Amino acid sequence: MITINESGMSFGPFDDSCVFWAEKSQLYQKVGKSKVKTVEFVLAEDNKLQFLEAKSSSPKPTPDNTTKFDDFINEIFLKFLHSINLYYSGILGRHETSNDIPDGIKEIDNQSISIKFVLVIKGHEIDWLPPIQEALVQKMVPISAIWNSDVAVINDVMAARYRLINRERED
Question: Fewest CB atoms less than 10 Å from the CB: which of 47, 53, 63, 71?
Answer without folding.
Answer: 63
